[in-house]
Structures are given as C-alpha cells and as structure tokens.
Amino acid sequence: MKKPLLILLGFILILFWGCATPGQKFIDITYLAHHEKTQKGEIGITPFQDKRSDMGQGYIGYRVLLDNSQETYLVKGLNLADTLTRIIKIYFEKNGFSTTPVDPWELTPDGVVKASKGFKQIVAGTINRFECRAKKKGGTTDMILDIDLTLYLGIADKNALKTIPVCLTLERTELIFTREKLEQFVNQALEEVIQKAIVF
What we know:
The chain is of the alpha/beta class. It has helices at 2-17, 80-94, 109-116, 179-197, and strands at residues 23-27, 42-45, 49-50, 59-64, 70-75, 98-101, 121-137, 140-155, 160-174. The radius of gyration is 21 Å and the shape is elongated.
C-alpha cells in the first residue's frame, strides 16, 4: 500500500509545483493563423519602435511563484520590436501582399508621400506597453496580458496616414501553467489584435 501512496503523493507534488523554478525563460512569438491570399500589391514595412522606457527590449513579463521568487519571460531573439515587425510582415504576406523593408519615415501625410516610393501602403508601429503579469496561487496561475500598440498605415495613392491605436487586456487562469501555455496566450492575443486592427 505504501508504494501506490508514494506515487500518488509524488504526482500531486508535481501537479502542485509544476516546473516552478525562478530565472529567465524564453518564449517564441509568431503568427500562425491561416489566410486566403486574396490581396495583391507591395507593402513597405518599417521596423517597430519599442517605447517601453522601463523595460528591456526582449522583456515579455513575469510570474511570481509561491515562495515570492520570480520567473522572467523574454522573447526569443531578445528584441520584441523586431519580432512584431516580423509578425506584421507574415500577416501581410499570408494575405497575398509582397513586403519590402522601408527606412523609418516621418509619421505624417507628407512623410507618407516621401517614403512610399511606389508602394501601395507603408506600415510602421510603436510598442507603448506589452507585459504579461502572472502569479501562481496554489495549483493555478492567474495571468493578465496588457498589449498597447500604435500602428501607422500610410496610404500612398491618397497621401494619407491612418493611425490605429490598439489596446487590449486579457485575463486567463491556467490549472497547470507551462511556458508553452504562456506562449499560446500571447500569440493568440496578437493574432486577435492584428486581425482587428488591419482589415482588408
């Protein structure tokens, strides 16, 4: 009787503690949604700018563990702005556009005219806030994800600049927290943000 009891207790401890070890963890942020290639034309994409003054370029968030130690989550590549630039590029290409890198430009209608150079549209973006705050409570983990971006869409043939503010806060509780679940949470939120912000 002792052996099955020990196995059960071991399982409960694994379930309760999970892989809760403090330190840095890395997640892969990407764009996985499928689209029909219904669009055509060439889009110029400028690298995103990270305006988060109090955070490192690769910072995504943290999780407080039961002993008040902390896991810190970083994006693979340690540069969130480059990652979001790549995601926007993937989004346009999955919809049928071709994309070309464009140097930073003045975010005004005149800036659009000077930077467009034959592109149908040009895109830029800033990261105002991006953070996932999580806390382990017993056998569950509560997560709050804040995403605040500003997208800039330059429409060359209209000499126009469209500013698209994107602000989203999502909450989720996971019975068994893993790095992969946090990764999925962030990626699904970004898919929702991009699809609602840029509609064809």
